[in-house]
Amino acid sequence: MCTVCGTPLNLAPQDAPFAQRERAYIRRLIAQGESKEQIKDALAKQYGDEVLALPKNEGFNLAAYLVPIAVILAAAALIVFAVTRRRRPRRSGSAAATPEISTADARRLDEDLARFD
Question: pLDDT for 2-12, tens place per residue?
Answer without folding.
Answer: 877 778 887 88
